[in-house]
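Reading group handout, session on sequence-to-structure problems. Before we discuss, look at one worked example. The prompt was deliberately terse, the way you'd type it at a terminal:

> structure 3-methyl-2-oxobutanoate hydroxymethyltransferase

The input record follows.
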Amino acid sequence: MFVPFRLATSRFSTLALRRCYSAQPASPLKSNTIQSLHEKYLKGIPITVSTAHDYITSQWVHDANCDAILVGDSLAMTALGYESTTDISFDEFKYHVRSVCRAQGPSMIMADMPFGTFESSIQTGITNAIDIMKLSSKIASVKVETGPHTKDSYTIGFIKELCSRGIPVVGHCGLTPQRAHSLGGFKVQGNKRIEDISILCETAKKLEEAGCWAILMECVPHKVASYITSKLSVPVIGIGAGPGCSGQVLVIADMIGMKQNSLPRFVKQYGQLHSHAQDALSQYVKEVEESTFPNQELHTFKIKEDLWKSFLDDTNKNSNINNTN
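And the output record:
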């Protein structure tokens, strides 16, 4: 039957388009961005952040619809058993960042710059920041710990250099674990002298002026943190800084009880994963020792009786032949 060329072409085009569209991969999950978090901040809606240290914990955070994930160097202590955050090597840290980035979900990802990655020179720091950003396209920002601006002008300058190169930065002030020795230990900051409060306020302002899109503030009296938050035009994410901040972050191992240890005052524990895991493993050990696991009907695989019989017959024949020889 004759088919007009125009009609044939139309049919071909329709079929081709159908094949083309059907071959397209599913749209990727929409992730939060720095801009979407800033819009939430402008609306006065608290921003939620949780740390994650591997694929599993990252997927949990995504599934909980948390705004952002921080791959913090706290994983050195909570996941790897080191005594300090300064013990972890850059290669170890990057391994965990890659693992976190393999999970799928809406949470925006930011990563710490561990101790030793930027202190030796600004150029070294820039190179290492680029290395972190290139680990995955999902990484939206780095986080940099800075000391009081009166003692640590270097880090403020380094952050300014990163921002001027288009590398988004979250500045971290207050208690900065990488500088715990110079701060006299893990202590609340800005709670002793008026001078200390003023320096903390000035440091936060200088981080904003350097180009930070957000500030993480740790272990600061809630009135001080609220005051600083009100004076800045970027989000302040608090950890041990009270409810007056623009959002909150907690370490996932502390938050859900992954370890059996004492917790900082500012942590609320929302689960007891260590106890649940210990109970489950103890029950497993008990059932294996009592031969109640695995259950033959529930946990094993079957084989057809005729196949099994043939195997045994063949085995017996071969055994008899070998014995005769």
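Points for discussion. First: The chain is about 45% helix and 10% strand. Second: Residues 34-274 form one domain.
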